[in-house]
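Exercise 7b. Backbone tokens:
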């Protein structure tokens, strides 16, 4: 059923749909048409010839999606009321939480330790095909009991956004490194109990602070590789917590989009609209976290062809 049909005939369709929704909820059965989907692939990264680099997206029935949203709203309300269900470290799909709040909350303490002259290690973990491999039986059981394991990691800072997880702690002593490893082992045990697997190729350690011993951590029997820079929820950080690489990456991407826009769009007004829709989000994504610290970074973004454009309030488009 096309969304426009639902919109135009809402007064007529609302009652029969509500009856179907109620019957489906009470019987636990879903209309057959709602279970059919057009599956399309969306390219993620790396080599396009590798099928594993594509994410399948299911386009399902609109009334079925409406039902899902109604149920999600009820579950979400219950989860908010039961504060212990989801831990404070989870930022993904929580109202009032975002990539920005995740980054700020996670790195607030870590940068404080670095400022004190301490060495800090951040272990980045990624689940393999998390949303495709979640056990429905385990998930339903947890929903029934509302007892998600909030305190899997007890000694270090744990921060999560959907399937992206990072674990950080002070690492300038043997005890500190051992605490990080213990919490990492606890996370692995949790994953095994819940039939989840880590994508070992995507797991990295970022060593922060001067005189960092660069301890090697294990993921099962394998050692976790170290990284000089890591892209965390779209923001590129190096081992000095500098955002210069992020500024360079954003400037390059914004300039590329602007260059293609100027060649394909003749209207100045359309250029401004496309700038607002395509370029400005690149410049402003989580900018409160990677605030420009150095003059050279501000000058780099100030040289963008975006300079001279104006937004609706007449202010300059450049971040400078």
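Sequence design result:
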């Amino acid at each position: 059923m096309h969304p426009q049909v639902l919109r135009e005939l809402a007064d007529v369709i609302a009652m029969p749909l509500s009856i179907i929704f109620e019957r489906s909820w009470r019987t636990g059965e879903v209309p057959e048409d709602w279970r059919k989907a057009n599956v399309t692939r969306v390219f993620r990264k790396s080599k396009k010839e590798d099928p594993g680099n594509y994410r399948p997206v299911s386009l399902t029935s609109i009334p079925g999606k409406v039902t899902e949203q109604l149920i999600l709203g009820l579950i979400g309300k219950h989860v908010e009321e039961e504060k212990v269900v989801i831990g404070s470290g989870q930022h993904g799909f929580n109202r009032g939480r975002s990539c920005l709040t995740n980054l700020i909350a996670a790195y607030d303490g870590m940068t404080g330790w670095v400022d004190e002259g301490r060495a800090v290690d951040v272990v980045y973990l990624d689940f393999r095909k998390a949303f495709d491999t979640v056990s429905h039986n385990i998930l339903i059981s947890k929903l029934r009991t509302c007892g998600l394991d909030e305190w899997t990691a007890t000694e270090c800072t744990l921060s999560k956004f959907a399937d992206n997880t990072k674990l950080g702690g002070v690492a300038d002593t043997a005890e500190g490194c051992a605490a990080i490893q213990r919490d990492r082992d606890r996370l692995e045990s949790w994953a095994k109990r819940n039939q989840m697997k880590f994508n070992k190729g995507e797991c990295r350690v970022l060593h922060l602070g001067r005189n960092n011993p660069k301890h090697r951590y294990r993921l099962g029997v394998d050692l976790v590789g170290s990284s000089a820079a890591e892209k965390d929820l779209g923001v590129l950080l190096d081992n000095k917590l500098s955002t210069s690489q992020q500024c360079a990456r954003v400037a390059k991407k914004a300039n590329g989009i602007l260059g293609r826009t100027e060649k394909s769009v003749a209207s100045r007004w359309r250029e401004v609209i496309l700038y607002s829709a395509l370029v400005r989000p690149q410049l402003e994504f989580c900018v409160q976290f990677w605030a420009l610290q150095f003059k050279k970074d501000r000058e780099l973004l100030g040289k963008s062809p975006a300079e001279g454009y104006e937004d609706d309030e007449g202010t300059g488009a450049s971040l400078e």
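Instructor comment: Confidence is low (pLDDT under 50) at residues 147-151, 304-320. The first helix runs from residue 3 to 8.
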